[in-house]
Amino acid sequence: MKASDRIFVALDTVDVERAVALSEQLRGAIGGVKIGKEFFTACGPQGYRRVADVGMPVFLDLKFHDIPNTVAGAVRAALKLKPFMLNVHASGGAAMLRAAADAAAEAGDERPILLAVTVLTSLSAPDLAVMGIGTSLPQQVTRLATMARDCGLDGVVCSCAELMALRGACGPGFKLVVPGIRPSWSVIDDHKRTISPADAIALGADYLVIGRPITHADNPAEAAQRICDEIAGLADAG
Ligand code: C5P
Ligand 1, closest atom to CA 36? Predict the structure, then answer.
C-alpha cells in the first residue's frame, strides 16, 4: 500500500459543494474520504454519491447499532453506495455483528471492509462504571475487538492508546483505523490525546482518519502531501 492510500480525510461538513471541492483538491494525494453522520444526515445518499463520483474510496462512518435484523438491513442498504469501509458498534453484541458481517458478504467481491467501534473515546473509566461495566477500559476495548474479529469483522476504529494492545490481541491481518491524528505542525483542537501520523503507523495503524489538520489548512493538498512524506518509508511496506 502506498503511504497516501492510508490517509482518509474526514469531510465533517453539511455542505455538499464544500465536500466535493475538498475531495477534488485532495484526489491523488490521499487514499479516500470519510463521510459521517453529520454529512449523511444532512445530505443523504445523493450527497454521498456526489462525493463518491469524485472517484476516491469512501469510509461510510455511520456506526450502526440496533437489533441484528435492522443492522443487517442498514448494511445491505449501504452496500448500494459501494463504500470502501463501513462500521457498526461492537456493543450491539455478537448476533448483531454476525448479521452485519453476513449482510456485507452479500456484496461478494465488492464487500466493504467492515469495522467495529469498541468503546467511544469520549467515554472514560468512570463513565463505564456508571453504565455498570466492571472491566477496565482497555480490557473492555480488547474484549469487544476480539469479539468483533470472531464474528467476522475485518477491524476496528481505535484510539492511539489502544493500538499496540489490539495489534497484539487481534493479529496482523486485523485492520486498525485510527482518528485523533495530529502532525507536530498542526493544532490539537478538541482532542484529549493525539498521535503523530508516523507514530500511529509505527505502532501498527493501517489507516489514519484525519480531519482538520488537512481540511482547515490553507492548502489542503499540500498538508496531505506533508503528512504522506512523514509516513513514507514507514507506510509503504504494509
Ligand atoms: O478533525 P479531526 O482530525 O479531529 O477529525 C477526526 C475525525 O475522526 C472526525 O470525523 C471524528 O468524528 C472522528 N473521530 C472518530 N472517533 C474518535 C475521534 C474522532 O471517529 N474517537
Answer: 10
| Residue 136 vs residues 100, 118, 130, 131: alpha-carbon distances, Å | 27, 13, 13, 12
Strand pairing category for 32-36 and 175-178: unpaired
| pLDDT confidence of residue 236 | 61
Domains within the chain, CATH numbers bracketed: 4-237 (3.20.20.70)
Look at residue 237 in the predicted model and tell me its pLDDT. Answer: 47
What's the mean pLDDT when you consider all of the chain? 96
How confident is the model over 42-49, as a mean pLDDT?
A: 98
Pull the grid cell for residue 217.
Answer: 489548512
Q: State the maximum Cα–Cα separation within the chain, in Å, rounded to a whole number.
A: 47
Whether 63 is catalytic? yes
Which one from 2, 63, 82, 192 is the annotated catalytic residue?
Answer: 63
Is there an atom of ligand 1 within 6 Å of 170 CB?
no
